[in-house]
Design brief:
Helix 1 crosses helix 7. By secondary structure, the protein is an alpha/beta fold. It has nine helices and nine strands. Strands 3-2-1-4-6-7-9 form a seven-stranded parallel beta sheet, with helices on both faces. Strands 5-8 form a two-stranded parallel ribbon. The N and C termini lie far apart (about 50 Å).
């Protein structure tokens, strides 16, 4: 029986992936900041909950060590993250640092702890949730996009390093997901100079979210990436994300950017 280690498993895609992989016969180690508050996953056979704040290096090291004592790990699913939205000049340094620490450095640190284990076994896989926002940029998301575009480039480079040892590296880039992400995992700042752009962005976001996917659908793409045996690096997930990315490829980056940006002016 294979085992998946998941970060950010308390809600949304992380929880959906935990339940899906368990239903397909996997052991699941589901990590989250406050596992004592979780009531649903604790009732499911072959799911183990462990505490993990991906901004806490000491806890990352301890939790990875504990997880490897519980079970051999076959797959690490880096899923923890949140969104920081707003014009760059309105964001304070603490917000920027927290965004980078959670979405980017947290993924790098968790991955780094597992690399020697996978390398010595000559097998294993890392899958990281990036975003369509790691392939396309939206207004007022510069800090968020900095992390997601970074994860795409980091994953591509890391794949060169680890594939030679039998370790796979993949990304899943979802579009909108029907969760409470906006109310639960969105931080925001603004200033009066950007009010019109903020209003336009939220108006367009509401329209775009109408085409968002259920987290279970995105979890299926994660499962596909984990089990299809391909060396494919990127998996764009959700019809909305696929449509946007196809437009960008068809029109070219500059033409797409010019046309897409008109929605937010």
């Amino acid at each position: 029986m294979k085992t998946i280690f998941i970060t950010g498993a308390s809600t949304g895609l992380g929880k959906a992936a935990a339940k899906l992989f368990q239903s397909r016969g996997w052991n699941v180690i589901a990590t989250m900041r406050n596992p004592e508050s979780e009531t649903e996953l604790t009732q499911v056979e072959n799911i183990t909950l462990l505490p993990l704040d991906v901004t806490n290096l000491e806890q990352i090291q301890t939790t990875v060590k504990n997880a490897l004592e519980i079970s051999d790990i076959d797959l690490v699913f880096n899923n923890a993250g949140y969104g920081l939205i707003g014009p760059l000049e309105a964001l304070n340094d603490d917000q920027i640092l927290r965004q980078l620490d959670t979405n980017l450095l947290g993924v790098i640190r968790v991955t780094k702890e597992f690399i020697p284990y996978f390398r010595e076994r000559k097998r294993g896989m890392f899958i990281t949730t990036t975003s369509i926002g790691g392939l396309i940029a939206f207004p007022l998301g510069s800090a968020y996009h900095a992390t997601k575009w970074a994860l795409e480039g980091w994953s591509e480079s890391l794949a060169y390093e680890l594939n030679k040892f039998g370790v796979d590296v993949k990304t899943v880039s979802p579009g909108g997901i029907k969760t409470d992400f906006i109310s639960r995992s969105l931080d925001m700042a603004t200033s009066p100079e950007y009010d019109e752009m903020v209003k336009a962005m939220f108006s367009n976001t509401e329209t775009m979210m109408a085409g968002a996917s259920e987290p279970e659908l995105i979890a299926e793409v994660v499962y596909e990436a984990a089990t299809d045996g391909k060396k494919q690096l990127r998996y764009v997930a959700g019809e909305d994300a696929k449509a946007l990315y196809a437009q960008r490829i068809e029109k070219g980056a500059e033409a797409f950017r010019e046309e897409f940006g008109k929605q937010f002016i």
